[in-house]
Specification:
heterodimer; A: mainly beta; seven-stranded mixed β-sheet; 57% strand; B: mainly beta; six-stranded mixed β-sheet
Chain lengths: 114, 109
Amino acid sequence: SQTIHQWPATLVQPVGSPLSLECTVEGTSNPNLYWYRQAAGRGLQLLFYSVGIGQISSEVPQNLSASRPQDRQFILSSKKLLLSDSGFYLCAWRGGPADAGPQHFGDGTRLSIL
Amino acid sequence: GQNIDQPTEMTATEGAIVQINCTYQTSGFNGLFWYQQHAGEAPTFLSYNVLDGLEEKGRFSSFLSRSKGYSYLLLKELQMKDSASYLCAVKDSNYQLIWGAGTKLIIKP
């Protein structure tokens, strides 16, 4: 069966520091991968998605970036964090274009910027 | 623009039935999803509708009317563990999910 791993679970970072969040998927190949952010009490905001290695689509221009160095690995990065980057970050996967199924989420990373 | 509307919060009694509505206006339609999200946790998939009608899964059912741009999630025999936020999401013509802000459901004994 397919599983998704996301780490770390919580992170406290100072303003201006770099960020790297990692997500890996097991049990499937060529998944669609997604990074979302959720502010407290709010809905999900799509940040990036990827349909294949090295293919990244950005939905919201900001100081975050994403990379997909391997088929089942998705990384969210920042060179300098802002206070507004605080939130709950979720990685999700779905099967490729022929898959009409739902997105499945990792456990999330709660990021606090001080 | 694309828009999904859900009530912000609802309250119901343990053992009762509750209906959470979702209306949508999107560029194209390729299915509607309902997710459950407990506080501090990731969303988990509940149901999927792509054709009009009712889909039943145990205590949970989801209904879709494409002509009305409308769906609802019906929860029966409510339990305290059903206290959570319920997210409605529509897959648009580009096969991207458009998310509602979620409905916080509070269950009282």
